[in-house]
Design brief:
By secondary structure, the protein is α/β, with parallel strands linked by helices. The protein has 2 domains: 8-129 and 291-303, Rossmann fold (3-Layer(aba) Sandwich), CATH 3.40.50.1370; 133-286, Aspartate/ornithine carbamoyltransferase (Rossmann fold). 40% of the residues lie in helices and 13% in strands. Helix 2 (54-65) crosses helix 13 (284-303) and helix 6 (131-145) crosses helix 7 (161-172). Mean pLDDT is 93; it is low at 306-318. The protein binds phosphoric acid mono(formamide)ester (CP) and norvaline. Residues 52-55, 125, 133, 263-265 line the site of phosphoric acid mono(formamide)ester (CP).
């Protein structure tokens, strides 16, 4: 059955568990090359409206290391929704590719591509979600903290795409997230409603008090105050988020064992100080590395499915032409 990876709300806890396990297995096997041919003959397309370092390179490297290939397309060059309609692009790309990863300003563009594609579509970041990032983050937490169950994550900053997906990934895997930031930038009501309906037993806390939030944090996470596409709000946001910079004084409020994560790219000196980003509690580099391993697991889950068998033809065979005899 065709599956997409659009939002973590679409995943069951057991699917999230098995993807995480597969990612850890693939990482353990990555030096032996045993997984090398699993995607031989498969092509992944990447259709991006926004810049990227980690997502683009880790997806391209993942598919190549599994024996497949990647084609990168800039949405502007393709004329997504301008030169050609989104449904037409989805239908045509489905003829050439085996999966399509999309980075878009709007979740609805990705959803629309998925609606008309006959290949798996992967959300490689939208305005409201960054599911690949969040699953790789839970993988990092599993490795560093030793478990995900009961882990307390405090996300300091904006209730953005990264924070939302992290909250859902945490709930799927038994961890929980507190968002600590200015109330005007807490999670939107429709996200909270959907979260509460999907995970009635998982707490989702929001506060503007870093001291209280951080007291029992196992993981302190932050992301930029101004996401791609919000550049015109940068000055306003800088002023509002100033008390929420993750610096050494703020980290000192967390448990001594607490680690620091950031999806990157970081705006050094804004949401995080150099001392924290480069300090002994930071795990941002292995965190970025896990994008590769999680996405290998994801590509195998989505692409390495037995081909759909076409029904046998039941029509009467066309009779062979008789040889002419004289
Ligand atoms: N974390 C992340 O998605 O990075 P890029 O924007 O560089 O892909
Ligand atoms: N919230 C950031 C994440 C970048 C990986 C953005 O959307 O720009």
């Amino acid at each position: 059955m065709l599956r997409h990876f659009l939002d973590l709300f679409d995943l069951t806890p057991s699917e999230a568990q098995s993807l995480l396990k597969q990612a850890l297995d693939l990482k353990a096997r990555s030096t032996g090359g045993q997984a090398a041919a699993l995607l031989r003959g498969k092509t992944l397309g990447l259709l991006f409206e926004k810049p990227s370092l980690r997502t683009r390179v880790s997806f391209e490297a993942a598919v190549q290391q599994l024996g497949g290939s990647a084609i990168f397309l800039q949405a502007q060059e393709v004329g997504l929704g301008v030169r050609e309609s989104i449904p037409d692009i989805a239908r045509v790309l489905s003829q050439y590719l085996h999966a399509l990863a999309v980075r878009s300003f709007s979740q609805s563009t990705i959803d629309q591509l998925a609606q008309h594609a006959t290949i798996p579509v992967i959300n490689a970041l939208s305005d409201s979600a960054h599911p690949c990032q969040a699953m790789a983050d839970l993988m990092t937490i599993r490795e560093v903290v030793g478990r995900t169950q009961g882990v307390r994550i405090v996300f300091v900053g904006d209730g953005n795409n990264v924070a939302r997906s992290l909250a859902v990934a945490a709930a799927l895997l038994g961890a929980h997230l507190t968002l600590c930031g200015p109330p005007a930038y807490h999670f939107p009501a429709e996200f909270v409603d959907r979260f509460v309906q999907t995970f009635p037993d998982s707490p989702l806390e929001q506060t503007d008090d870093p001291a209280a939030a951080l007291a029992d944090a196992d993981v302190v996470y932050t992301d930029v105050w101004t996401s791609m596409g919000q550049e015109q709000e940068a000055a306003t946001r800088r002023a509002v988020f100033e008390p929420f910079r993750v610096d050494e004084a703020l980290m000192a409020r967390a448990r001594p064992s607490a680690i620091f994560l950031h999806c990157l790219p970081a705006h050094r000196g804004e949401e995080v100080s150099d001392a924290v980003l480069d300090g002994p509690r930071s795990r941002v580099v292995p965190q970025a590395a896990n994008r590769l391993h999680f996405q290998k697991a994801l590509l195998l889950w989505l692409m390495d499915r037995p081909a759909v068998r076409l029904p046998r033809r039941s029509t009467t065979p066309i009779p062979r032409r008789r040889k002419r005899t004289g």
